[in-house]
Amino acid sequence: MFHRQPVVLYCLCMGVGLLGVLCSMLPLFTDAEENLGLHLLYRLRGPVKAPADIVVVAIDSESASALNMPLDPHQWPRMLHSQMIDQLTRQHVAVVAVDLLFQTPQDKANDHALAGAMRSAGNVILTQAIDRQAMPLFDKNGVRTTHVMIERLVSAIPIFADAAIGQAPFPLPKIPIKLNQFWCFRSASGNKPTLPVVAFHIYAKDAFDDFIDLLADVDEHLADALAMPDEGRVDIQTMIQLIQPLRARFEDDATLVPRALDRLEHYPIKTMPPRTKDLIRSLLLLYASGNSRYLNFYGPPGNIRTISYHRLVNASTSPQAHENLKTLKGAAVFVGQTDSNWIKTHDGFYTAFSGDSAQDISGVEIAATAFANLLEGKGVFLLKPVGALILLFGWGALLVWISFYFPTTFSVTGLILLNGVYFYIAFVQFQTRCTWFPLVVPILLQTPVACITGLIYKNRRGMAERKNIREAFGYYLPDDVVDRLSTNLKALNLGGQVFYGVCLFTDAQNYTSLSESMDPASLTDLMNTYYAAIFEPIKANGGLVLQVVGDSVMALWTALEPNNEIKFAACKTAVEIISAVDQFNRRVGRHAMPTRIGIHAGDMLLGNIGAMNHFEYRPVGDIVNTASRLEGLNKFLGTNVLVSRDVISQDNRLPARSVGRFVFKGKSRPVHVYELLTPNRVVMERKKVVDRLFASGLVAFQRGQWDDANHWFHKVLRIDPANGPSLFYIEQCRNFKHQPPDGVWSGVVRLHEK
């Protein structure tokens, strides 16, 4: 599985990266970025100081009360508006943008007074309304198929349209929503410049000629494209008329802005004052932007300098108010209703700062904010599409890499820290450069997906590793032990549990000579085939192979208490092993390895035995040693399978015969030993003659009647010349006849060799 890890890692890195890229294009996530990400950045940044030369004249409830006017500002006598404009003219403001609609005539004298004030000011812009109508479309049969939305700009009545220096729309939603963007150029109206754009051009009128000269320096065809006058300064109305052609020119040549900015940076200060340079730079950034821009709010409503309408109109009655108005010189003034809760006008919009004052921001304040953004060249700027795609793709790949290559605790901690660093960088960029890094997709989408993906992969890899370990350990340990170790290595404790068990030992003849005569590879192949012949009967009868050393195998059957079934299973296994080894020996010929087996039953401790960092899972107790000695006794008796009396139960279903009682070397207690007769022996001794003769000889031997015992054993040899136990006892009778045993004879043979 590990060799596939890089492929899986690369695929998931690409997958999470592409997930971020694709989701960033979906409306659901773009809306979430605005409503959550941008909102959070504003909240953390907090209010900032707005430009001092931007002022909002607020038509509010305070003014209505002070002037004794109706709630609806459209019903106010226009004489008041003329007084307001005259007051602003006397203060030499740079531009006045009026966010009121004058679409119906009122009192003739009042209308003429207002028009005269506008004409005298020469810097008043009026807001145009937008009338949206659905125009039906018909097919050739006259059947209506669909419709298109047509936008029509609704200007002020002619008397005001002629008096104002210009008119411009400022489209805003008709329902109160969270507002984050504003239009610079309205594409549905033929790239018509909006109110903040026109106001900014009037504000920067003194720098406009230098702006055009700069463009002419880098674009020799500019004058022809704009049909500009040959000489003289550009007046305000001509300047306003040039906005749309200039916009088209910048759209046609994307290199015009960077070339102009580069040329601007090399203008000597003496040739162009710093303020003029700043205004030209802001104009270039305006034309370089798209049709819409994100607003950079300065704070809650009222954060831009605001003067109540009635204080401006009645300034002459208050020396202090009149003195304060002197600071309006050169300012950009926006006039409109600000108190959104005063009357239901659908002119209030909530922002990230609305929660602080529980008050929405008005349309005129949005226009003033947009103007301030254009003036400062700030706004809120998204990453360029290519940069955003690279960021999201690389971010997703990095998250997956961390999730994969580090342990879960470190990877989760690392992801949290990495997201904290990313968020800090995004905040600093927003605070210092007004650059808006995406937050929702990388932090709330890609990070959890990468983390969960890493956890799932690690879990699957861990399960696969545990499966492999379990499968590997299964060759050496019991299933229940492997189950405990695969889930918790702490289960590997010293000691174990006491069981009743049956232990089976096997040993192969000729292994030593074969190991000397065969090369290691061939010997290994031979022994693997041999072990396969032995292991199969053990596994088939429920046994557990616990130890394999050289040519010896130890198998075990366990139970909580003495159990005849496991005894029978062990004996049956021994018979099947002898049969399987016989078949093996016939196949390998001269490499045959006849096998001896010893079986003993009793209590034992089964568990982990060892010290320091090395353990073995094995049985401990006399049962193991005795089974090994029984296997060794086969060499002396010439038998194949020897078992103790503890194994031969009353309901034993396999034939066996007693071969005597023995005290093994190093032991003091005798063991009554039986030979387990294999099926071929049963056939050969069908009439059990040999068994009766041998039993008679064994009784005589145990009584110390050496000559009688010798007689009976020789009778056995006449029928079965290869009868190993008889040969063994004939030798014992000869030895005892020449040198009788010490003490009282008990019929037990003491072995001095293993």
Ordered list of secondary-structure elements with their pairings:
Layout: H1 5-23, H2 27-45, E1 54-59, H3 61-67, H4 78-90, E2 95-98, H5 108-121, E3 124-138, E4 144-154, H6 158-163, E5 166-169, E6 181-183, E7 185-186, E8 192-193, H7 195-203, H8 205-218, H9 222-226, H10 236-252, H11 256-265, H12 274-288, E9 292-294, E10 306-308, H13 309-313, H14 319-325, E11 332-337, E12 348-349, H15 354-357, E13 361-362, H16 363-376, E14 381-382, H17 385-405, H18 408-433, E15 435-436, H19 440-473, H20 479-487, E16 495-508, H21 511-517, H22 520-540, E17 544-549, E18 552-559, H23 564-588, E19 595-611, E20 614-620, H24 622-637, E21 641-644, E22 656-663, E23 671-676, H25 679-684, H26 689-703, H27 706-719, H28 724-738, E24 748-750
Parallel strand pairs: 1-10, 1-11, 2-3, 2-11, 3-5, 14-15, 19-21, 22-24
Antiparallel strand pairs: 3-4, 6-9, 7-8, 12-13, 16-18, 16-19, 17-18, 19-20, 21-23, 22-23
Instruction: Determine the strand fraction and express it as a percent band.
Output: 15-25%
Question: Describe the biggest sheet?
Answer: 9 strands, mixed
Q: What is the share of helical residues?
A: 40-55%
Shape: rod-shaped
Which residues form runs of ≥5 with pLDDT under 50? none
Mean pLDDT: 85
List the total number of helices: 28
Gyration radius, in Å: 52 Å
Span between N and C termini?
49 Å
Number of strands: 24
How many separate domains make up the residues?
Answer: 4
- Give the structural class: alpha/beta
Oligomeric description of these chains:
single chain
